[in-house]
Amino acid sequence: MSKTSGFGLGKWIAILGIVAAVGAGSYFILNRNNQAAPSYQTATVTRGDLTQAVTATGTLAPVLNVQVGSQVSGNIQKLFADWNSRVTAGQVVAQINPTNYQATVTQAEGDLANARAALELAQIQVRRSENLRAKDSTPQASLDQAIATEHQAEATVKTKEGSLALARANLDHCTIISPVDGIVISRNVDVGQTVAASLNAPTIFIIANDLAKMQIDSNVSEADVGNVREGEAVDFTVDAYPGTTFHGKVRQVRNAAITVQNVVTYDAVIDVDNSDLKLKPGMTANVSIIVATREDVLKIGNAALRIRLPDPNEPPGPPKASPSPAKKKKDDPARRFQRTVYLLPDGEKTPKPVPIKIGINDGIETEVLEGLKEGDKVVTAILNSPSPAAPTNPFAPQRRF
């Protein structure tokens, strides 16, 4: 009885060993097959239109924005314009209390009259001294003194005339007028408020000349400014009208650099037609400056340009060092437009590298100038890739420490 039981146990141990061997062999075979046959995601080379644009942000502003201030200090007595008021050139928009300046004018007029009276007296003294000197009844020194006094009186008259002109100018400046036709977009004072013009001219109104014609001061990065030219078309959107695309044109690319936190940008001024007055000063514009347009060209997705597959003819080992910067400088600049993509013909499992020449891109797709034809399939992603490490045998005995 014990002999039969021993024979059955050995039989079962043998059967389990055979099953384990078959399982391990199957695992290695399947794993080796998976490693030998990676799969790829492909995209088809298509034909269509392509537009390359430079993106930037900017602020809408009137083409002519005038700050109306005060050259004199005083209390605001009257305001004749308010927010959104339409004004014309020469129109009175504010009045500063003129009492003190009127008193200064009156005082200057009195000083001038006094100086003119002194001049008349000096002229009479000169004539009297000349008559006496002709009769030799007075010394020459007296005549010279009278002539000098007359000249001093003439100078005093000119000084007082200047003081009177200044006083009258200050009085005129109490009346604030609009220098241009336009619309008031900002009023910074109220009636009774005191403005002080001792250091700088305080701003009372900001007047936009014509809101039907506006401009965008956009900040273009230094990496993109080389592609921006005057006259290029512009599309832009604002948050107030998310479903609407507005249009403009580049008028000027200013040479003055704007540096903020070590980021260098340049101001590209864009003219905008705002005939419907939907756009308002200060709105933030998301700008796309159209720098190049191509129609009916071959194009591929940019993902195909980023794929790098290992060369099957290259021996395994560490990756080769990239060329030094000195060597890169010697390369032909045309190499910037040369790329390598991987073509996967129908029915084949191994992609082959193909050199191509590229043109413009819109951030999603790139123009293909040479190397591919419409309908070709290029690799854009590797769906599964063999691991360089040897597979682990799940049935191998584990070492215990």
Task: Give a structural overview.
The protein is α+β, with helices and mostly antiparallel strands and 401 residues long. It has 4 domains: 38-47 and 298-315 and 322-384, conserved putative lor/sdh protein from methanococcus maripaludis s2 fold (Beta Barrel); 55-63 and 210-296, Beta Barrel (Elongation Factor Tu (Ef-tu), domain 3), CATH 2.40.30.170; 76-97 and 174-209, OB fold (Dihydrolipoamide Acetyltransferase, E2P); 99-171, Helix Hairpins, CATH 1.10.287.470. 29% of the residues lie in helices and 37% in strands. It is built from 5 helices and 19 strands. The protein has helices spanning 2-36, 99-134, 140-173, 303-306, 325-330; strands at residues 39-44, 46-62, 65-69, 74-79, 86-87, 92-96, 175-177, 182-187, 194-195, 203-208, 213-221, 233-238, 246-260, 263-273, 284-301, 338-343, 352-361, 365-370, 377-384. A 6-stranded antiparallel β-barrel has the order 2-11-14-13-12-15. The protein has a 4-stranded antiparallel beta sheet with strand order 3-10-8-5, with no helix packed on it. It has a 4-stranded antiparallel beta sheet with strand order 7-6-4-9. A hairpin with a 3-residue loop joins β17 and β18. α2 runs antiparallel to α3. The longest helix has 36 residues, at 99-134. 18% of the residues are buried. The model is unreliable at 1-6, 317-330 and 389-401 (pLDDT under 50).
